[in-house]
Description:
Layout: H1 2-11, E1 29-32, H2 37-54, E2 57-62, E3 71-77, H3 86-97, H4 103-113, E4 123-128, H5 141-152, H6 162-177, H7 185-188, E5 189-193, H8 198-210, E6 215-219, H9 233-239, E7 254-257, E8 264-269, E9 275-278, H10 280-298, E10 304-309, H11 314-323, E11 327-331, H12 335-342, E12 347-351, E13 357-361, H13 363-374, H14 380-395, H15 403-417, H16 421-425, E14 433-438, E15 447-449, E16 454-457, H17 461-469, E17 476-481, E18 488-493, H18 497-514
Parallel strand pairs: 2-4, 5-6, 5-7, 10-11, 10-12
Antiparallel strand pairs: 1-3, 2-3, 7-8, 8-9, 12-13, 14-18, 15-16, 17-18
Amino acid sequence: MAQFEEVSQKSKLHPKPEGLTLQYGTAGFRTHAKHLDHIMFRMGLLATLRSKKTKSTIGVMVTASHNPEEDNGVKLIDPMGEMVTAMWEGYATQLANVEQDSLLKELKDIIEKEDINMSEPASVYVGKDTRLMNYYGLVTTPQLHYMVCCCNTHGCYGSPTIEGYYQKLSQAFFLLTQNALNRTDDQKRLLVDGANGIGALKMREMEPFLRSEMQVVLSNDGSSGKLNHMCGADYVKVQQKAPQGMNMGVGERCCSFDGDADRIVYYYTDSKGCFHLLDGDKIATLISTYLKELLIQAGLNLQIAVVQTAYANGSSTRYLEDVMKVTVCCTKTGVKHLHHAAQEYDIGVYFEANGHGTVLFSRAAQKQIQELVKDPNSNDERKRAVKLLESTINLINQTVGDAISDMLVIEAVLAIRGMSAQDWDAIYTDLPNRQLKVTVSDRRVIDTTDAERRAVSPEGLQDTIDSLVKKYKSARSFVRPSGTEDVVRVYAEADTQESADSLAHEVSLAVYRLAGGIGDEPKPLH
Ligand SMILES: CC(=O)N[C@H]1[C@@H](OP(=O)(O)O)O[C@H](CO)[C@@H](O)[C@@H]1O
Ligand SMILES: [Mg+2]
């Protein structure tokens, strides 16, 4: 009773603005920071309930990832470092939107529905990125996921400190790069764009742990520029150009983190000054090809699959299925969907095209690999392959996509295989593509099916898209309502950039006309 009385008193200090409704979206609550005070308070309450319910430590990450500096957000992290369940996302939305005088009733409803024992102790880890300009307890989103998982597995996953994270990753990285002979300083050099965010600070902090095995040249380190402004993974992916403030030499390997360092994309410019993007699809291809080769060398019969979304470039899907003979599956947009699908395989490699992803190894697969490491009868080639697999598992943050961990995996794979950024890029050629946004009065009129690749409403939209696609070669297009912005996203790809642009424009017009477009009609790109 006293607990509820206290909640009731304190909630008055964090009133909900009248008429404001917010949704626990693709990655938690995310909006202008001035609307979030009551949300932060209420999510604190919900995290405590989730902790009591699971009898585990729960994470609360305060971040708005790649959004502009004035936005903020919050999301909950479940015991194994994964996103909170759909059921609890629902509770989060309800709790966020009840009026002040119904808050206690809503809390009591959740407690009753979930049969929560309120005398259980609660444990919550809170992390935040650099948005609050308060340099205490700052972590990247994936570092918090890692620590929550370590805490709940009693150290099996690693030690639940930032130092433990750096140690685990750097050790695994050393073991892998030992297999890359004669690495030159040039090969160890990587230009990193920190998006003026937390990733830059954490990269600096990690540098001493990596000793001379990597030569990081950090730009957009937060010392002067604005968070995510003209820099960061989202800017580079969507604009298909280099961030500001980076001094790129011809052919030099470069990468960009996003604002909370859970995404990464690579790129370089060639001798003609042409920009080449190595996005999430290229990353998934590089890593899955490397793992598949190791499995063959180790004589392990484990099923490996790549999980993508509708935004995956058609060339990547074709290469993985037809050349690599890897199982490919497609889910809805949003990491939680990909993560879930990847759990179905021995090894599930998942990446969104924008560079958010990781690799999951099933418990059985990890056990087989660990046992084989100890097997005295295996020959040298086999031994080398299983040891590489073991260290790769240790280098990967399996709880969530992690820019720092993904970067080290990519650097290790390129080093072991003696590949440059150009070699990696040449594995397959991306189909030219274009992403556009259309504003409509209510984006919920668009309903999709088949992992968001087909629209079932409004009537006639899919038929129109189908007939437009037929006009172009190697073309594909789909539309879906965004889960993080009030827009409809349009994607198109085709054999040339002109065709992709023109198809994207024609489909945007169809959305504008059939789904209640507002403002000016979409204009052609050229
Ligand atoms: C096309 C695209 O990049 N969509 C992004 C974006 O989701 P939308 O639902 O498309 O707004 O934000 C999500 C959360 O960060 C991320 O998971 C997703 O990949
Ligand atoms: Mg992010």
